[in-house]
Amino acid sequence: MCSSFSLKTVLLNLAILVQINGVVSASNLPTDQVALLKIKSKITDDPHGVLGSWNDSLPFCKWLGVTCGRRHQRVTSLNLTGKGLAGSLSPFIGNLSFLRYIFLDENQFHGSIPPEIGRLSRLQNISLISNFFTGEIPANLSSCSKLRELSLYRNKLSGKIPNIFSSLQMLKIFDLRRNNFTGRILPSIGNLTSLEILYLSRNPLGGSIPDSLNRLKELRELGLAHNGLTGVFPMFSYNLSMSEFTWELLIQTEVHIAFS
C-alpha cells in the first residue's frame, strides 16, 4: 500500500516537472527566433527552399538571410532579396527590436506594410523594391529617427504620402517611384536636410512643387517624371556641377512646370 502510494506520488511529481519544463522551455525561446518563425509562417511560396534552414537544427543567427550582432544574439539584418518568396509580411517583424536593415527586394510580398515596423527604433534601411505591397505608408515610420533609406520602388502602394519628414533628419534615400500615391508633395519634405536621392516619378501626384525643396542642399538625384505636377520650379543654390546635373535630369522628365 505504502509502496503503491509512493510510486503514484513519484509519477505525479514527474508529470508536473515535465509540464513545468515544457512551459519554461517555450517561454525561454528567444524573442527573435519566435519573430522569425512567425515571419516564415506568413510565406505561402518558397520556390527555392531558402527558408529550409529556418528550423531548430541551426541557431537562428545562422539561418539564411539572417545576421546577428557580434556582442549579442539579436537579429540586426534581414536580407531575403531576390528569393522569389510570396506571402505577406508578418507584424511580428516589429518584435526584432535590434533590427537595423530590412532588404526584401524582388519578391512577391503582398498586403500592407505592417505598422509594427515603426517600433524599430534602430532601423536604418527599409528596402522593399519590386514587390506587391498595397495600402499606405505607415505614418508611425516617423518614429524610426535613424532611418537612412526608404526604398519602396515598384509596388502598389497608394494614398497620400504621410507627413513623416520632421523626424527623419538622417534620411538620405527616399524612393517611391512606380506606385499609386496621390495628393501633393508636402512642404515639410524640405525638413529632410540630409536627403541625397529623391524619386517620386510615375505616381499620380498633383499640385505644385514646394519651394521647400531648395532647402535640400545635399540633393544630387531628383526624379519627378510622369506626374501631374505644375507651377514654377524653385530656385536651387547648389554648386555648378550639382546644378547642371539636377537641371539635366529635370529637362529629361515630363514634368509640366515652368522654370524660373
UniProtKB/TrEMBL annotation:
GO terms for cellular component: membrane. GO terms for molecular function: protein serine/threonine kinase activity. It is a single-pass type I membrane protein. Residues 1-26 form the signal peptide. Pfam families: LRR_1, LRRNT_2. Its EC number is 2.7.11.1. Residues 30-68 form the Leucine-rich repeat-containing N-terminal plant-type domain. It is found in: Membrane. PANTHER family: LEUCINE-RICH REPEAT (LRR) FAMILY PROTEIN, LEUCINE-RICH REPEAT-CONTAINING N-TERMINAL PLANT-TYPE DOMAIN-CONTAINING PROTEIN. Belongs to the RLP family. This is Non-specific serine/threonine protein kinase. The lineage of its organism: Eukaryota, Viridiplantae, Streptophyta, Embryophyta, Tracheophyta.
